[in-house]
Amino acid sequence: MADQSNIQSAACKSIRPFRSSEEYLYAMKEDLAEWLHALYGLDITADTFTESLETGCALCELANSVNRAARLVQPRRPWPDVAYQARGAAPGSFVARDNVSNFIGWCRGELRVKDVLMFETNDLVERGSDKNVVLCLLEVARRGARFGMPAPVLVQLEEEIAREESREREGGTADGGHGRGRERGRRTEEEEEEEEEQQLAPVWQPQRRVCDMRNLDELPDTPQCLPSLLKAQLSANVMRAGVTP
What we know:
The protein is an all-alpha fold. The chain contains twelve helices and no strands.
């Protein structure tokens, strides 16, 4: 479950508007770096993000942590460990490439992460695309959170928005019920994809949106207003609005 104090602290502190996709990307690196440091004590910052991950060892450790959490929720699935080799895993080496490739194979095979959120070995080993690596790790963090793992602040914010939207739907009036019935009869592609993801991780979570934090500095200090304000201020998808050049 999201730490409410962390959410309020992250959302209410003054953050200047991001002026470029690079600033969005840097903010996400900071969040992921803090998350990985909290999980493993990994010596990583936004500035050393790629260097700290390029051997693939930390990524495979992350995969195995998700596997251990998943086994508790889905004991009938094997969730095999991801093999990796720490010895000789120098940056750019064959061993490092093999480690990163194993992590990528786990994301595709076990978590079924969609291609649009995946990265290739060269994106990390040869610094091809930090963005692809960041988006993939955020998705891994979301899946891990479904199994009870701690989540980065961005994912916690997404969950808070989703819970608020769920409460609003449940609190809706009864009029217009026929229209809602017709609407429920129309299965969209998005709903079908969400159902497929729920089959992978049956601990149900409402659909999440990645947060656009451009206007966090405009939030008041009143915690009670946080969910609705987050919904209003942070509803844009960062993959489209914040990262895509």
